[in-house]
Design brief:
Oligomer: single chain
Structural class: mainly alpha
Number of helices: 11
Number of domains: 2
Strand content: under 5%
CATH architecture of the largest domain: Up-down Bundle
CATH class of the largest domain: Mainly Alpha
CATH topology of the largest domain: Four Helix Bundle (Hemerythrin (Met), subunit A)
Order of helices and strands: HHHEEHHHHHHHH
Strand order of the largest sheet: 1-2
Radius of gyration: 22 Å
CATH superfamily of the largest domain: GntR ligand-binding domain-like
Helix content: 55-70%
Largest sheet: 2 strands, antiparallel
Distance between the termini: 55 Å
Amino acid sequence: MEAISKVSMLDLAIQAIQKYIVENDLQPGAVLPTEFYFSSKLGISRNITREAIQHFKTLGIVMSKTKVGNILCSTVPVSPYENYKPFLHDSRTLRELSVMRKILEVGAVSEICREAREDDILKLEELQERMIHSGLSGDGSSELEVAFHSRILEIPRNRFLSGYVPLVIDFFTLLKKQFAEKSFRHSREEVNRQHRMLIDAIIKRDPDALRTAFEVHGKSYID
């Protein structure tokens, strides 16, 4: 590992640590070298090293563990848009999150249909059954609704796509507030019917039917 120049030291330190992780093929659970190690090898201060490591902590890639040190959690950011959340709570947020959610779901239909396993389908049907008998209003604000849509996005087992699952949670959290204001509402029966359409399309492994089901379900929140 070569020492780096003092020009854009933080950016270069981040790149150097990233390179170290890749070149050493570190896997989740691996303990990173100490700040002193990186500082001495790169010829930079420990403060710069600490800031560089904090960059990876912010992304959910690295975490600190008492008496152990900095541990590699993942090589993919936990949530790609996590740091922008404080700026997303204006009047446009709910609709934009709704559109983004639909883009993710519709764009993933082929992978969902191809990768769906029996346990995925059973879990979706279990959640569907619980929603039917929950006695909830069907406004999409329940934890069951969050679990249902999160499970669908997790079916492809794609780490990048799974990184957007928190978006689903944020969407339904804001939706719950919207319904509390009684600005709009759709029936529980209609929600349940739409969920059944989604499950049936996945069972049939029919991307066109699943795409249509997502489009129909999405309109319940956008229109």
